[in-house]
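Budget justification aside, the reviewers requested a transparent look at the raw inputs and outputs of the sequence design task funded under Objective 1. We therefore reproduce one unedited record. The lines immediately below are the C-alpha cells for a 285-residue chain.
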C-alpha cells in the first residue's frame, strides 16, 4: 500500500498535478495492517496534516472491515468512494456493514494472482485509485507503475507483469469518479491525534507470550491444509512454524490453529511428504 500510494502520486504528477504521499505503518510484515495516503492538488500543497475526509478509500484487505482497531471508515463522508478488495458484490458489503456513500468492489487479489502469480497489490490498488480519481490516464498509470517498481530494482519481467495487471484493474474498476464540483472536504481542520497503543496495526509484541491475543489469522491469504492420509507425523511443520501455530495432538498429528496462523506457508514448503496444500482464503460473510 505504501508503493500504491506512491504510484498514485507519481501518476497524478505525470498528469500535471502536485502530489504528496505518506505511509503510516507499524509491523513491517506482509499481511499486517498498514495505511498510506496520497493528497493531490492543482495548486501547491501547503497542508501537511492527516487527511481528514478522504475522497477515495481503498480497502485492500476485506478482513479489515471486521477489525475495529483498523477503523477503515474513519473520515468517510457521503462523497467518498470506497473500493473494497473482495469478490462479493458491493450491495452485499453495503448491507452487511451499513456503509453509505459510493461503494465499489473488485477482486484485485484475483487479478494479481492470475497476472503476476504473487499476492502483491501495489500496482492494482493504485490502478483502481487512479481510475476513481477520474484525473489519471492509462498512459500515466503505466509510466508511474514502471517508474516506481524499477526504482526498487524489480526485474523487467516483473515490472511488465505489474503494468499489465494495473491496466486490467484500471479497465475493470467501474467508471465512478470523485465529484469535482463539490467543495473540497479536507478543510485543513486541526486534528488532535489520540495516542495509539502499540497494538494498533501491529501484532502486540510489547509483552511476551501474548501471541494468542492477536488474531493474525486475518493476515492470511492462503490457508495451509494438512492431508492426514499423507502425513507421516515427522513434526517438521510443528518445528518450523515461526508462530507456534501448530501443535501435536495425542496421536502425534499436527493441528493448525487458524486463528493465529498468518499464512506464511513455511509449513507448506518444509513438509517432506507434501502433505500440506495451500488454499486461497475465501471469507464467509
Ligand atoms: S502457514 Fe504454516 S508455518 Fe506459517 S504460520 Fe501458518 S501454520 Fe505456521
Ligand atoms: S511436515 Fe508434513 S508429514 Fe511432517 S508432520 Fe507436518 S504435515 Fe505431517
Amino acid at each position: 500500500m505504501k508503493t500504491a500510494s506512491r504510484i498514485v502520486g507519481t501518476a497524478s504528477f505525470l498528469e500535471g498535478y502536485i502530489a504528496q504521499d505518506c505511509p503510516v505503518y507499524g509491523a513491517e510484515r506482509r499481511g499486517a495492517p498498514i495505511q498510506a495516503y496520497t493528497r493531490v492538488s492543482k495548486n501547491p500543497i501547503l497542508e501537511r496534516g492527516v487527511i481528514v475526509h478522504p475522497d477515495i478509500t481503498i480497502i485492500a484487505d476485506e478482513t479489515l472491515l471486521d477489525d475495529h482497531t483498523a477503523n477503515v471508515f474513519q473520515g468517510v463522508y457521503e462523497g467518498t468512494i470506497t473500493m473494497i478488495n473482495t469478490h462479493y458484490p458491493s450491495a452485499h458489503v453495503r448491507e452487511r456493514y451499513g456503509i453509505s456513500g459510493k461503494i465499489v468492489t473488485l477482486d484485485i487479489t484475483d487479478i494479481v494472482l492470475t497476472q503476476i502469480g504473487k499476492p502483491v497489490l501495489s500496482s492494482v490498488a493504485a490502478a483502481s485509485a487512479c481510475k476513481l480519481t477520474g484525473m489519471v490516464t492509462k498512459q500515466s498509470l503505466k509510466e508511474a507503475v514502471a517508474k516506481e517498481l524499477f526504482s526498487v530494482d524489480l526485474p523487467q519481467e516483473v515490472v511488465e507483469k505489474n503494468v499489465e495487471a494495473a491496466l486490467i484493474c484500471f479497465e475493470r474498476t467501474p467508471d465512478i469518479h470523485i465529484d469535482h464540483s463539490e467543495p473540497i472536504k479536507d478543510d485543513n481542520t486541526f486534528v488532535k491525534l489520540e495516542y495509539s497503543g502499540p497494538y494498533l496495526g501491529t501484532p502486540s509484541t510489547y509483552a511476551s507470550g501474548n501471541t494468542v491475543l492477536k488474531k493474525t489469522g486475518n493476515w492470511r491469504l492462503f490457508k495451509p491444509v494438512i492431508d492426514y492420509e499423507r502425513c507421516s507425523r515427522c513434526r517438521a511443520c510443528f518445528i518450523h512454524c515461526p508462530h507456534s501455530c501448530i501443535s501435536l495432538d495425542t496421536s502425534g498429528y499436527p493441528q493448525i490453529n487458524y486463528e493465529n496462523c498468518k499464512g506464511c506457508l513455511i509449513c507448506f514448503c518444509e513438509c517432506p511428504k507434501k502433505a500440506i496444500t495451500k488454499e486461497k482464503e475465501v471469507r464467509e460473510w
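DSSP finds eight helices and nine strands in the chain. The helical segments are 2-14, 90-97, 108-115, 122-133, 138-151, 156-172, 236-240, 266-270. Computational costs for records of this kind are itemized in the attached budget.
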